[in-house]
Amino acid sequence: MLILRYSPASPYARKVRIAADLLGLTDRIDIASADAADPADSLRRQNPLGKIPTLILEDGSALYDSRVIAEYLDHLAGGGRMIPADPSARFTALRLQALGDGVNDAALLIRYETFSRPEALRSGEAIAHQQGKIDRALDALEAALPTGAVDIGHIAVACALGYLDLRFAGEWREKHPRLVAWHEKFARRVPAFEATKA
Q1: CA distance 4 to 131
Q2: What is the pTM of this model?
Q3: Which among 7, 82, 128, 141 has the fewest CB atoms less than 10 Å away?
């Protein structure tokens, strides 16, 4: 049995869980919570970076990060399903995944800056820099919505939008009506999206 170390709020772990569901692999994976902030959690021995998600394989070795885990799961399911084999579709999916993951990276840095740092040490400039990345990514998605069959890029974008809803009260929605409609359609098409909501 595979073991996925995760946190319910992690958009990267959510991406992996949705991919596993769409690939029909859910029954082959035990879900085990991890506390990346706890030095005593075995996560740091399983993944020297101490990050989630981490996938523990049956031989005890570990895979990380979410992109590597998603590729492994796609391989287990026969390949070419979440990460298309056709070069054009493949690199479109991987580019979308990078965009979605990049939104999450920026959103997490904003969250750390505003919730983990003492107020006197917070940098408005750093927050604005990360917010600019998010805003540009959302504008690009609004102008060119993901199309076609659900792949790892669609999942990454949907999880990024879900994380913005979770941590930033869905502030992105007002200026991106086409993306809101796409996000709602994705949620209807992929029941695992709602099932993995934190």
Answers
A1: 30
A2: 0.96
A3: 128
